[in-house]
Amino acid sequence: MKPSIKWTAIGLGSVIAVAHLGILGHLLNRETNNVVQVPTINIPHGPYSSYQIEAGENGYRIQFRADDPKILESERSLGLDKESKGLFGGGSEQRSEYRTDQFTREGVRNLGGAIDDEGKSAIDAECLVADAGAQSQGAMAGSAIAAGVVVPAVAGIPYVGWLASGWALLLGQNLGEAAGSYVNSAITDC
């Protein structure tokens, strides 16, 4: 081998060896200098929004509410202390009123019960339960009346009596359900 090729091979090998050592040193040193970079997050904000960010070793958590507060509260206080000495030497009047109201952002006042996340109050839930019970009771009464009065009358129709009696039973059930709901709404003001 010629001396110039020999020195070229040694020089090229040395450069490759130093490059490999440099890369290994960089990879080993990278794990000890572990720097956590926080991501940049553009959270939309407005006059009624709020957010909370928690960051830790295992990641981060963001809690964002676009419409916070959902319920606005208003407190009013009125007091009157009046002492007047009238014709007979006495008189005192003391009035006091304290009122707390809850409003939604649109200005709707809460008239009773708590409002859940979907905007329904406890009174609405009570009305739904009462209406469902009334519809069920009315459907049972309507089908019982239809089974006792109408079904025997139409069952004797030749060829289609069995079909007409089924229809009569379903019609009685539907009419009873509607009547039960109507009576419930008249009684409970729902």
Provide a descriptive summary of the structure in words.
The mean pLDDT is 79. The protein is flat. The chain has three helices and four strands, in the order H-E-E-E-E-H-H. Helix content is 48%, strand content 21%. The chain folds into three domains: 1-33; 71-104, no CATH class; 122-188. The chain has 190 residues and is α+β, with helices and mostly antiparallel strands. A two-stranded antiparallel ribbon has the order 1-2. Strands 3-4 form a two-stranded antiparallel ribbon. A hairpin with a 2-residue loop joins strand 1 and strand 2.
Number of helices: 3
Mean pLDDT: 79
Query: What letter string, H or E per element, gives the SSE order?
Result: HEEEEHH
Categorize the overall geometry: flat
- Determine Rg (CA atoms, Å): 41 Å
How many E strands? 4
- In percent, how helical is the residue content? 40-55%
> What topology, given as strand order, has the largest sheet?
1-2
Major sheet: 2 strands, antiparallel
Question: Could you outline the blueprint of secondary structure elements for this entry?
Answer:
Elements: H1 3-32, E1 50-56, E2 59-65, E3 71-83, E4 92-104, H2 122-155, H3 161-188
